[in-house]
């Protein structure tokens, strides 16, 4: 594929590349240059690209954006809106991708390394893994991130270390009087028999400017390790977020990825790619998107069953109001040798407005014969009988609708294992569904 | 308490209720009987405010107010309660959360603060005992996977907790074994007083042995074709409805 359209944004990046490169931390030069060549070959996708058929990303790249490799200053009081009541966790704050030591409380226990990716650049492990878990050949945004990332975190949990409390990773974005293009990059490695929980969230503090965030997170979950990742996307209006999460699992590992996309960012595209490189792994991918106004939420998931005896279980649910649009793509690939695979996928939607829209497509590619795979898609409105039943008990119409949305989301929220996070999400869902 | 006058209603363009007249006073128990499809559940639905029914003629006055002007939740808060013939299952809403929300919405309407957690627990326990409701069902999803009898008992539990002025029980007795029927009836008998009223929709005289009605009405083809006392229920049990249908059709053709 060659770049068919050259937009102002594309030209800005290509023309500015040499200068931008000078502003990024060193040590990754060959990787960056190779990725940039790939980006130029791929170009920015249009709706002609299969993976972008229902998402015209060009619409969200029209405004002029400025490459923003630096952090702004943020104070503790500004973080208040993102605090999760009752959450007992370590806290790591990134501002425009840059680690803020003064705002962070790191684990004191041995065996946990948390540092800016740039600072970890010379570690052999980083050299070995960075950029090796994403499909650069067909992912223009991941290629662009690889070429020009700044900021982001290297996290390593040593073998047999169970991190005692979750890590609350707060991504703060800020810009003043201009639109900022920000590209954080994470590399997380959870070693054999280790366990880690990360709760990730976003806080957009920009003033008179829009943020466009194009992030990548590569994670390796080693043998018999367990990693839970709660990604809470509830950023301010106008923000645009593209994120590629690539996770590799080794044998007997367990991975639980939760993705909550709630109002009000205008654009969200999540790529979640899970590669099962070992036998007997377990992967749970749970997603909930509640979108209102004119939000566009696109979840693109890919589970690659490369080895036998692995279980993957995927459930994405959506509630769409106003003129919100959602896209769900669920690709499952089962390699010929991946016998005894169990792969389940379900995408269910509540469409609460005539103008809301969902495009959902499963993509199953199964090359092994002894497997159990299933997929399903539903879209519906409120159950009128249920609504009447609740109202007939004196429950007001709005409260009744809230209860039904909460009930719809329950399959997902019920599986959140951190009570404070669960309460936080449930109350945010309630706030999101004011029906006009 | 309730006056239904010349009530006509249709659903999906089909005329179902064809001129119902009924007066209910506080302290009274009315039974409504009649063959399947005669419009009993439809009458209950119109009273509770089910939105797919359209009232084409007539009026319903409840405690001096025009009931038809009120949204379903307002009717409930004003004191109307319908025990559903087919209670709805709502996965993901726990029974206890549902009850708490309902009780507190009722309280808010009366200008009362939400019930304290401990008081609510005590109140629930008390009412649970009244209908021998299995405590294990409280934390389960509302009606999901409940047996027929459990669902019906849950309706009566809700009735007990919301303390309505007018309760309409739509075939609450069907699907109950004799023990469950006795429990439900005892519950209702304990809840009745000189200020509230009950409408029992039933097929069987059996229920009326436990809850003795002041009036028995026969609904047929969208109209009340006969009203009597509890002896009428016995007569229906013996003779069926055919004699009434015949009389009705004779009258129609005049
Ligand atoms: N939603 C509906 N759409 C069309 N017809 C209906 C609907 N609900 C009830 N009916 C019809 O109304 C009539 C009365 O039904 P119903 O009130 O349930 O009777 P009963 O409770 O006395 O058995 C029946 O002929 C039934 O088919
Ligand atoms: Mg009926």
TrEMBL record, chain A:
Gene Ontology process terms (BP): iron-sulfur cluster assembly
Taxonomic superkingdom: Bacteria
Domain SUF system FeS cluster assembly SufBD N-terminal, residue spans: 31-168
Domain SUF system FeS cluster assembly SufBD core: 175-408
UniProt-listed Pfam families: SUFBD_core (PF01458), SufBD_N (PF19295)
Name of the featured protein: Iron-regulated ABC transporter permease protein SufD
Record InterPro entries: Fe-S_cluster_assembly_SufBD, SUF_FeS_clus_asmbl_SufBD_core, SUF_FeS_clus_asmbl_SufBD_sf, SUF_FeS_clus_asmbl_SufD, SufBD_N
Source organism (scientific name): Chitinophaga costaii
Similarity comment: family membership: Belongs to the iron-sulfur cluster assembly SufBD family.
UniProtKB/TrEMBL annotation, chain B:
ABC transporter domain sequence ranges: 2-246
UniProt keyword annotations, A-Z: ATP-binding, Nucleotide-binding
Keyword rRNA-binding: no
Pfam annotation, one family: ABC_tran
GO molecular function terms attached to this record: ATP binding; ATP hydrolysis activity
Gene3D superfamilies the record matches: P-loop containing nucleotide triphosphate hydrolases
Family per similarity comment: Belongs to the ABC transporter superfamily. Ycf16 family.
Name of the protein in question: Iron-regulated ABC transporter ATPase subunit SufC
Organism: Chitinophaga costaii
């Amino acid at each position: 594929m060659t770049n068919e359209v050259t937009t102002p944004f594309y030209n800005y990046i290509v023309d500015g590349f040499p200068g931008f490169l000078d502003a990024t931390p060193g040590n990754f030069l060959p990787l960056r240059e190779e990725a940039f060549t790939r980006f130029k070959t791929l170009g920015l996708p249009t709706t002609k690209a299969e993976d972008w058929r229902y998402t015209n990303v060009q619409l969200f790249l029209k405004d002029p954006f400025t490459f923003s490799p630096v952090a702004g200053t943020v104070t503790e009081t500004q973080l208040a809106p993102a605090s999760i009541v009752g959450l007992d966790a370590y806290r790591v704050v990134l501002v425009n991708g840059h680690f803020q030591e003064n705002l962070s409380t790191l684990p004191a226990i041995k065996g946990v390394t948390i540092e800016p990716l740039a600072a970890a650049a010379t570690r052999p492990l980083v050299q070995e893994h960075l950029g090796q878990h994403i499909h650069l050949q067909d992912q223009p945004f991941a290629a662009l991130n690889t070429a020009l990332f700044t900021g982001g975190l290297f996290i390593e949990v040593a073998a047999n270390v169970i991190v005692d409390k979750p890590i609350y990773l707060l991504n703060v974005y800020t810009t003043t009087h201009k639109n900022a293009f920000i590209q954080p990059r994470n590399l997380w490695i959870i070693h054999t028999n280790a366990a880690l929980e990360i709760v990730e969230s976003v806080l957009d503090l920009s003033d008179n400017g829009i943020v466009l965030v194009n992030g990548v997170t590569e994670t390796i979950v080693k043998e018999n390790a367990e990693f839970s990742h709660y990604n809470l996307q509830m950023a301010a209006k106008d923000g645009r977020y593209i994120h590629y999460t690539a996770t590799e699992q080794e044998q007997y590992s367990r991975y639980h990825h939760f993705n909550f996309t709630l109002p009000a960012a205008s654009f969200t595209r999540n790529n979640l790619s899970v590669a099962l490189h070992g036998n007997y792994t377990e992967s749970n991918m749970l997603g909930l998107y509640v979108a209102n106004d004119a939000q566009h939420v696109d979840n693109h998931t890919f589970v690659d069953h490369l080895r036998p005896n692995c279980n993957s279980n995927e459930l994405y649910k959506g509630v769409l109001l106003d003129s919100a649009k959602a896209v769900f793509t669920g690709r499952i690939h089962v390699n010929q040798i991946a016998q005894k695979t169990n792969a389940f996928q379900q995408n269910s939607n509540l469409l609460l407005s005539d103008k809301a829209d969902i495009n959902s497509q499963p993509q199953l590619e199964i090359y092994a014969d002894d497997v159990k795979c299933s997929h399903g898609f539903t879209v519906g409105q409120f159950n009128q009988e249920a609504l009447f039943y609740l109202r007939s008990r004196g429950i007001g119409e709005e409260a009744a609708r809230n209860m039904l949305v909460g009930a719809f989301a329950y399959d997902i929220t019920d599986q959140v294992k951190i009570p404070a996070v669960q309460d936080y999400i449930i109350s945010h869902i309630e706030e999101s569904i004011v029906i006009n | 308490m309730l006056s239904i006058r010349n009530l006509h209603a249709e659903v999906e363009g089909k005329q179902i209720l064809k001129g119902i007249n009924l007066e209910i006073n506080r302290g009274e128990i009315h039974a409504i009987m009649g063959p399947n499809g005669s419009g009993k559940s439809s009458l209950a639905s119109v009273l509770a405010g089910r939105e797919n029914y359209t009232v084409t003629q007539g009026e319903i006055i409840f405690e001096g107010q025009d009931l038809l002007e009120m949204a379903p939740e307002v009717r409930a808060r004003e004191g109307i309660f319908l025990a559903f013939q087919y209670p709805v299952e709502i996965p993901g809403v726990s029974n206890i959360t549902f009850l708490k929300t309902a009780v507190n919405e009722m309280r808010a309407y009366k200008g009362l603060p939400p019930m304290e957690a401990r008081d609510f627990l005590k109140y629930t326990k008390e009412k649970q005992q009244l209908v021998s409701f299995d405590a294990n069902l409280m934390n389960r999803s509302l009606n999901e996977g409940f047996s027929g009898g459990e669902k019906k008992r849950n309706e009566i539990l809700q009735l007990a907790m919301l303390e309505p002025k007018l309760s309409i029980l739509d075939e609450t007795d069907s699907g109950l074994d004799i023990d469950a029927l006795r429990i439900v009836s005892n519950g209702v008998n304990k809840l009745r007083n000189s200020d509230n009223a009950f409408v029992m929709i039933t097929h069987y005289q059996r229920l009326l042995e436990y809850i003795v009605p002041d009036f028995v009405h026969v609904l047929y083809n969208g109209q009340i074709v006969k009203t009597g006392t509890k002896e009428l229920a016995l007569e229906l049990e013996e003779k069926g409805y055919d004699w009434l249908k015949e009389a009705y059709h004779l009258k129609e053709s005049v």
